[in-house]
Predict the structure.
Amino acid sequence: MIKNKSLVSINDFSKDEILRIIELAADFEANPDQPLLRGKVIASLFFEPSTRTRLSFETAINRLGARVIGFSDVNATSATKGETLKDTIIMVSNYADLIVMRHPLEGAARYASEQSRVPIVNAGDGANQHPSQTLLDMFSISKTQGHLDNLKIAMVGDLKYGRTVHSLLMAMSYFNPKFYFVAPDELKMPQEYKTFLDEKGIEYEEHTDMADVLPEADILYMTRVQKERFSDLLEYEKVKNTYVLRNSMLDATKPNLKVLHPLPRVNEISTDVDQNPKAYYFKQAENGVYTRMAIIASILGVK
Amino acid sequence: MEQKELKVSAIKNGTVIDHIPAHNLFKVISLLGLADIPNQITFGTNLESHKLGRKSIIKVADKFFADDEINKIALVAPQAKLNIIRDYEVIEKKQVTIPDEVVGYVRCFNPKCITNHEHITTRFSVVSKDPLELKCHYCEKVTSEKEMVII
């Protein structure tokens, strides 16, 4: 099903395909050294820097026994001479068996998938899509809760611009969740996503205070409230400390609650939370490697 | 009715496109590529209309549009009506319909969309017809009627 298919948007994968990736990720976690792709070459094209995502993908590729070609600094490439994305992709697709790419422009991965002879895995296209992040979030949720069905998921912080929360919302919609959206007025969940949930008959509540939802949640998905998102800086000053999670706030929460965050974290989760067994964000990042092994192995048809 | 028709001279054979909002006349001309064809074309604009306030009308001699060609104008003239003329007689009346897919004639409003940076044919799916909303195949952002720019 997934074989030879590009992964550009989370919407490209069906429910069964998502479940398949999660199952494979668990398998890779149990046995991380499976050099199934020995002799393959995978291109890692980072047109904008992203240390965490690039290292995670390249670790996944190395653990699968394939070789990596590519760049992490666009200034060292012909793009600075004015080469088009189309030409770069056509050229690299003649060298490699699969292309992992990150690009600052939205839609770049979709366009690349139409030009390339080999599958494209989107590692982020501007503010648009970052599907491997969504799949690793799903894997983390499934692993910590034992299943994906009927969960109560609180999303906190920047719900307006945060692509990770939008993609997670879409993908989780297959599993009858209930959502709690906690955000300042300026950064509320956009109407299009609420309409999507209404149409699917999925419950959600909107709050401005995290304390209202903490006792209910199975998953607390934190995101960063960025100063530059506010038109009114006074408004930012008013809310900046409202969306910070402190260790004491986790006392009255469910025993199965896990705190997720796509990272990098700045100050929205105070460091005293790190030692709490409910903190899961570093493990979540590790899960990214197994999830990306699962994505690449299934697209190249070895799993 | 008769008098209105006379404001723009009659054609023997061809297509009359009526009920174009006056402010979108030149968009219709550009969408249909009328500036680049050798046919005789007459048009009137700022004509009185009960429905639209001010409307435009275009008469293109010896030209009969294919449905997918004419439906392009539905984005800027959703109430447009076509009269197909043969030998000075109206032999068929048609309405335009908004297509499900819009390929190559609308710009994506998102400045960070790849289609605004490389030479790429734009592609949208029509997610809503009223109000008009076009979802970009590439960046997945929705361009509304207000933000819509015809290429």
Observations:
- Chain B has two domains: 2-95, 101-150.
- The radius of gyration of chain B is 16 Å.
- Helices of chain B lie at 2-6, 25-31, 67-70.
